[in-house]
Amino acid sequence: MNVVLKYAVFLGGCIAAYFEPVRALLMLVCGLFVVDFITGVLKSHKVNRTWALKSKKLRWSFVKMFVYLAIMALTFAVCEMMALSVDTGLTVVKMEVWCIVYIEGLSIIENLLILFPGDRFLKFLHYLLSVEFLKYVPVLSNFLKEREDENRD
Description:
The chain has 7 helices and no strands. It is mainly alpha-helical. It folds into 2 domains: 22-116, no CATH class; 118-153, no CATH class. The N and C termini lie far apart (54 Å).
């Protein structure tokens, strides 16, 4: 067990050093991940009336976080292989991180809406982020329109 712990600490240090340039943003993502997990557990308890974790989304939340980190690491690696500047790689990773912040933030608000169904501020915030915000992001609105057309067929 001691050897496994040493390798885990070594691997954690390697990952921390690799993501040092975007440490503050990763701390934000990790914080949002924890808040999303907690609100998801509370939502699951409210919906299922038990503390047993029956939500499929909740079970996959750690896999989702691993995928987020893998995508960012892959982006860094691809930028290094293409001999792009470090600033270019950081810019792309920062864009990915802000997309993750948006997704996790919206998930937190959706969980809170189930926990507090009558809260008008949460309803407004959810409408603002899920409807109005997407009007000003042409790529997302086109993607959603295309997805709606696929669902109709």
